[in-house]
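lol ok so funny story. i was supposed to be doing the assay writeup but got distracted and ended up predicting the structure for this chain instead. priorities right. anyway since i did it might as well share w the group, maybe its usefull for someone
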Amino acid sequence: MRIIDRTNQALGHNIARVRQQSAIRRIGIHHSATATGTTAIFENFWRTIPNVMAGVGGYHEVILLNGDVEINYPPTRVSHGVTGQNGDTYNICVVGNFTQNPPSGVQLQVLLDRIRFNVNRFANVTFDRVLGHIEFPGQSTSCPGRATNMNSIRSQARQERNMHTITRATGGFYTAADALAGRNQRTIIQPGTYHVFNTSQGMINVTTQQGRAGSWINPATQTSANMHTITRATGGFYTAADALAGRNQRTVIQPGTYHVFNRSQGMINVSTVQGRAGSWINPNSTSTGQPNTTIRVGSRVRVNQSARTWTTGESIPSWIRGQTYTVQQIRNNNNELLLANVLSWIRRNDVTLV
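and the output, tada:
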């Protein structure tokens, strides 16, 4: 899935009515009633009905046949998806005619992801307020198609209980019993939102791939005693003596949580692999080393606590700040980054490479 930003070229993007994001109370779900299409194609039709559309397109988001998402308007602009009901509505359209057949698997999954994302970011929207076009008052339409079961979509999207958010790096274990006892740690689970594969003894098996077993964590704990968190890039040295003296630097250790392999002279040997020697650091050093600041597609970045708005001008939710995400796309001379999962564009100065 790609996010395609059309907010500067969508029909009427500069004349669409402005509202506060807090005014959004419903999400409208639509189908295009066409076999194929893109927003640009739909706009050609909307231009022919000016009295209805008032020069502004119908949907904030359009999910294409391949699962890509076209973002047409920020939430603070009003689109014309539901007659007379748009002031508090965020409109999402799925390309296809679902009068007979439901959306494809990839489109349905993307739709569920986008519903969850938007419900989370709009303070006054709940899953019960995700409505098919026909479910809005006074609408005479079959949209989003008879084969689109909105009760099922709401139910699937509501399954946030099948997701678990980790706010601090924590140990990942082979079994629930291991996680409960804090033994046989196999990995480190970095902050982020994960699928829940199973639960047992109060422990949770989290995974990045739905339906596939991952690692067990203890949600009551944060990092283990054999972990060390580095908050800013620092020098990594060959020996504890080198780290203490600040000489013979071998590498730069980026911010993150690491296994502790050894300690000596107040210095710490940190490693990304449990039981394997890494590099020595001075935990009291104020040096930042010479960190690599080049961000590429695939880089992991942390959203700064000072970040306030996306590039579209809408506010960055507090639950986003301090979290780590993968860079999915880069534009504007590397000054704007698209964050995976969040699927929003952010300024380079508002993130830190990790």
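The chain has four domains: 3-157, 162-217, 227-281, 300-353. The first helix runs from residue 39 to 46.
back to the writeup now i swear
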